[in-house]
Task: structure prediction
Amino acid sequence: MSADTARMHPLTLRFTDAGLEAVFAEEQARKALKPFRMAMICVAGMVLIIWLLLDNLLPQIQDAKARLYIPMLVMLAILAYGYVRSYTRSFLRRHHLIVLVGAWGLAAAIVGICSLLPRASLEASGLAMIIVATLNVYSIARLRFIAACYGGWGTTAIYLGYLSQSGALGGTELVRQASLLVLTNLFGMISAYQIDHSARREFLSTRMLGEERERSERLLLNILPASIAERLKTSKLAIADHSEEVTVLFADIVGFTPLSARKTPQALVQMLDRIFSEFDTLAETHGLEKIKTIGDAYMAAAGLPERRADHAPAAARMAQGMLEAVTRIAAETGEALAVRIGLHSGPVVAGVIGTKKFSYDMWGDTVNTASRMESHGVPGAIHCSAVTAALLHQGFALTARGAIQVEGKGEMHTFLLARSNHNVHSMQGIAE
Result:
């Protein structure tokens, strides 16, 4: 999140970014749901209690009680409407408008009740009710600062407008109540400003923390497989798994040393980045797990950390794609690029060891043999062992290379896999 996006207007506190403001408004509306509903229930309960105890509280207006039915019903209807509306989807989008209309409607209902009260009761009861309503707008309603100001001053204006027009109170008492309500609004504005400002700061902190967490997650997933990353977050033990059916792929750029001698470091890294980025895309497309790069060598595996029955075909298809990618890059750059690729299938041990700069790696004879297939391979070709060749069922063209001497392995029967699967007739020369 950029500093410009997170900037707030010093007076209104609105974010300069309209999208961020909309997200904040909806989040605040969600947080306001529970206190808003509780406030509706509490106010409705107070109205009903006052109505039931009205005869005892104000015996002098027993004759006027019948005339209070409509104001009381209007007030209850407003409260009920606000409560029910809070369960609708549109409430989140129109939270401020609904609360403001409700606050002003509540003020109008209070005015209706005040119109039936005698002067002695109006001086205390009317002022108390409007102060409570005003403070609720600034606090419980969780309105943004400017909306809270509209609500609070609007509520006050409705009440004072009634008093001034009706002449229900004398000039001195009217000035006194007006002064108290102005002080109430000023106090409410300060509180609302602080509440809104704190809420926005908390929102930004939470959002930035979430972005940092997502960035860390993406970084972790770029280093480790998703399932391994989850295990690493919940366990402090070294992670090591044995997998019986895995195909290991090694690739190495032919003639890299002389190529690096005639290129600048920046140009060399850019070329490697382009080639390996193509390989990464192929690994994701074919479902292989990239293990690591060592200099100009690239290592990947099919069949781990999750097992898959078609591990050998998947690795073969990726290898074919790698040859095509290098051929295309060579034609575009004019460089004499070629790559040797080796494949071998078998059991491996894979996991994460250590506590710093950890990485997902593989160990075992299968890994060593796959590396030998690459180093004893042919430039621009895919060299695979007899074990891998036997797993490549109909659909891949293989040419027997015969028995060759492999360093550290002795004599091995190996095969060359065709660059593509077009015009494939059958696998050739697989040893019995």
